[in-house]
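Closing statement on the calcium ion sub-project.
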Amino acid sequence: MRSPAQRHAPAGAAAPGTRTDIPWWRTAVVYQVYLRSFADGNGDGIGDLAGLRSRLPYLSWLGVDALWINPHYPSGGADGGYDISDYRAVDPEYGDVADLEALVADARALGLRVLLDIVPNHTSDQHPWFQAALADPDSPEAGRYHFAPASEEPPNNWQSLFGGPAWSRTPDGRWYLHLFAPEQPDLNWRDPAVAEDFERTLRFWLDRGVDGFRVDVAYGLFKDPGLRDNPGSYSPTLFGHGPEQAMTWNQPEVHDVWRRWRSVCDEYPGTMLVGEVCLADPEQVALYSRPDEMHQSFCFRLLKSGWSAEAFADGVRSALDAFGTVGAPVSWVLGNHDKDRQVTRFGGGEVGEARARAAALMMLSLPGSAYVYAGDELGLPQADVPAEARRDPIFLRSGGARAGRDGCRVPMPWNDSPGVGFSAAGAEQPWLPVPGEWNRFAVSRQARDGGSVLTLYRRALALREAHAALGSGRATVSTRGNVLTVRCTADDGSVVRCVVNMGSGTALVRSRGTVLLSSSTAVRRSAASVALPPDTAVWLADR
Ligand code: NOJ
Ligand code: CA
């Protein structure tokens, strides 16, 4: 057993030879705050920094180590804040820079670290650079984006990830590149002014005490210099991009940017970078977290795997191998603001919830860091958002053919009141409607319920803190039929097994060890074995 103080080194400090030499981010549980939907402090129906600040004690009570806040910057509003118009400011809807500093101070007092989101691949079309580039094709700002001369056809076959061609026309007939929405023009990272400005932005926030950044589209930034056609088209069903998209992603030059950013972080001990790297090949993803690049890159394999022991085992094994090769911890992800909620992905209803509980135990047992998306600790399902309320450009640009991501971005239910406590009573309607029956998921209810999803997460996080074999050490993964076992061994030799029954019949697991935690009360212990009904998981401390 260990105490929280033993588990992580304070920012920058190290005590060689003891557990305290582990930098905090290697084993941290990071809670992802979708700022707009977390808590509304001023009653306008939009989550904000004051609201988040007021809920920090909840995150401390839950037992996470850090939070990552989705973009808080002034934005054109075309893609949930991922279209930034001013990188060194706070959107007035969310507060101001002083609010962010106060949030960081409060978080620090509670022992929580704060990561911001940073978006280097593209700006908003409202950004002063793009506006200047539109006004004058010969301006220095025009060189910071990808423009092509007026012609009948776009320069190549590149597609926007949100649908349609990746090229749109300016009012004077030129083409400009946007791998996401037209309101998100891609930056030209071969112009040194772009790199310089981003370093200023990093320092601006690091000087305000933040602990690092989640880096959006970290596999982007550079494109094929010859603008050659991509050999294939984008498929949202793949694990990530591969050779079919070789001209738009994963250009070798991008790694030098992360080396530069790493050296900036090194000036601020204890800070870190975690990259969003949506590439199909785990070995390519891991290259982004070599020792002189970002500290972590997300492992999205489990987020994109169906409920199957083989698929999960393959996701875990391939990540442990790939990240092990570069000496980086794996950053496990089961949910985020871009994917359907786990409960729904895993089948919905009681089955979906049972599986989401079991999956959480598996993720939280694994060595490395784990990212928990706000609301997953409540077992929220994907919300059914009426078409007229939807905001996601994926939905809007596909004419409704693709559902988009609004259903996982609905405000958090905090209590039993009609507005579920997201805003103060009598406030404006929330920016996305909350389903009528969602008070049943409220934090206030689940906190009192020993069998709730929230209680399960809280217990799991406390045990992860206390047992050296959970969340750090070494893991091996095996399957027997549809039963998945992750065997976690601490440096002191102690072992915890996480066994997940992903099949349709009861699984008997031989063990005389202690059941530390089970995902369901239906898990039964007898003298020499544990019976796991379908869709359940257990943590066993083996003797
Ligand atoms: C990835 C972000 O997670 C997503 O929400 C956003 O739409 C794209 N990057 C574009 O910035
Ligand atoms: Ca607000």
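DSSP finds 14 helices and 19 strands in the chain. With this model delivered, the sub-project is considered complete and its resources will be redirected to Aim 3.
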